[in-house]
Write a structure and sequence with these properties.
The mean pLDDT is 87. This protein is α/β, with parallel strands linked by helices and 458 residues long. The protein starts with a strand and ends in a 5-residue tail after the last helix. It is built from 19 helices and 20 strands. The chain has four domains: 4-133, Rossmann fold (3-Layer(aba) Sandwich); 146-312, 3-Layer(aba) Sandwich (Rossmann fold); 314-385, Helicase, Ruva Protein, domain 3 (Orthogonal Bundle), CATH 1.10.8; 387-458, Orthogonal Bundle (Arc Repressor Mutant, subunit A), CATH 1.10.10.
């Protein structure tokens, strides 16, 4: 059975003709001669596509279009009119019409318009389905990754979350250590309690102690009232200690006691208070090296390193970059109230070949910047990306043998060319004619590739 099509027009001869036409094309066709008749048909059955006249005897086809899209935005609606009007066409498209045709229309053209509208609607439904499936398979509490290392971490989080043991998350800056901590908290039995976090390297020692354990009124200048610490506020919940490697030796001693005894004492106080807090610590440093240099206590390290998680940098899980890019494009298009955008193949290849020293955080910031500065086009291209991506791509200039996993030859050669062109521009103070001579290129060719790569010059 073909797609179900509803034809709405008050010209009986036209609806009969269109009904016969589309029935011969394999559609299952229903017709209506008024807005009210169309409402009855839509209430009686669902349609994959609707062909609707603008001018109806009992109302406007645009009003009917608005009703249809409000009730169910999925079926494409193609509007027809005998009165050619740019404003009417614009109004119809704003209300969600898939297309617009003027009477008298070419029969073959009309068939193509309806078929294309159905194909776009089907593609949109498939994209929504695939995106939902990807989200189910490759996300864990807003953490995104399909790479084997991230899938292993997701499985580890599920096991860890059921316990109350202390966790140490190791990873470079920007890899998402706090996201991991939140995922552990919200996947476990403490999810209905508070998750609190603090950066141990962002506060001086006296303020850090007050933030963690609280203080009594008058215990130091400015302590005008009693204050609860994060250990008290997070009781029966989770406390995330970011950059724990930055903590001073004396604070390490106080934290160790709190973890061992499960009691805290406020600054300036004399009474101890029992607390039940799960600790998740994180660091970008090599704590074992800091232990060897005497900067971190070995006993505290063993206390927090009960369940270690090692987050890979983004350059070691490049297969996750397309998923992350898609996620950030959706996120920031929504925030900036922009229409949905995609990214070109060339631009994606550029992102996949970059080293990402700032990891996922750097990628997110770059996508936000690209959207903010991009044109009105619906696709992010290499022109929307910063020029430094071209000169800092992962290119093996001494490559001799083809790697076992194969090679993106076009991307490889493009990266080498961009690097050499950038070096030539730097050597000639940005003068493109001189840079072209250095590379034995015509000025026209140099200018073309420089524009394509987003390189700046005079």
């Amino acid at each position: 059975m073909g797609a179900r099509l509803l034809i709405v027009d008050d010209e009986e001869s036209l609806t009969e003709f269109l009904s016969l036409l589309f029935t011969q094309e394999g559609y299952t066709v229903a017709t209506a001669g008024s807005v009210e008749g169309a409402r009855r048909e839509i209430a009686r059955q669902s349609f994959e596509a609707i062909l609707c006249d603008v001018m109806m005897p009992d109302g406007s086809g645009l009003d009917l279009l608005r009703e249809i899209k409000t009730a169910d935005p999925s079926p494409p609606v193609v509007m027809m009119t005998a009165y050619t009007s740019t404003k009417t066409a614009i109004d119809a498209m704003k209300l969600g019409a898939a297309d617009y045709v003027s009477k008298p229309f070419d029969v073959e053209e009309l068939k193509i318009v309806v078929q294309k509208a159905l194909e776009r609607a089907e593609l949109s439904r498939e994209n929504v389905y695939l995106r939902r499936e990807l989200e189910k398979k490759y996300t864990f509490n807003n953490i995104i990754g399909k790479s084997p290392r991230m899938q292993a971490i997701f499985a580890l989080i599920e096991r860890i979350a059921r316990t109350s043991s202390t966790v140490l998350v190791n990873g470079e800056s920007g890899t998402g250590k706090e996201l991991i901590a939140r995922a552990i908290h919200f996947a476990g039995p403490r999810a209905n309690r508070r998750f609190l976090s603090i950066n141990c390297g962002a506060l001086p020692e006296n303020l850090l102690e007050s933030e963690l354990f609280g203080h009594e009124r008058g215990s130091f200048t400015g302590a005008v009232r009693d204050k609860k610490g994060l250990f008290q506020e997070a009781d029966r919940g989770t406390l995330f200690l970011d950059e724990i490697g930055e903590m001073s030796p004396s604070m390490q001693v106080k934290l160790l006691r709190a973890l061992q005894e499960k009691v805290i004492r406020k600054v300036g106080g004399t009474e101890e208070e029992q607390v039940d807090v799960r600790i998740i610590a994180a660091t970008h440093q090599n704590l074992e090296a800091r232990i060897a240099s005497g900067e971190f206590r070995e006993d505290l390290y063993y206390r927090i390193n009960v369940l270690p998680i090692n987050l890979p940098p983004l350059r070691q899980r490049r297969e996750d970059i397309p998923l992350l890019v898609d996620f950030f494009l959706q996120k920031y298009c929504k925030q900036m109230e922009l229409p949905a955008k995609q990214i070109s193949v060339e631009a994606m290849q550029m992102l996949e070949s970059y080293e990402w020293p700032g990891n996922v955080r750097e990628l997110e910031n770059l996508i936000e910047r690209a959207l903010a500065l991009s044109s009105q086009a619906d696709t992010i291209t290499t022109r929307d990306l910063p020029a430094f991506l071209l000169t800092r791509r992962k290119i093996q200039s001494d490559l001799i043998d083809l790697p076992d996993e194969g090679l993106d030859l076009e991307g490889y050669l493009e990266g080498i060319r961009a690097q050499l062109m950038q070096q030539a521009l730097e050597r000639t103070s940005g003068v493109q004619t001189q840079a072209a001579e250095l590379l034995r290129m015509s000025f026209r060719s140099f200018r073309y590739y420089a524009k394509k790569a987003g390189l700046k010059g005079e």
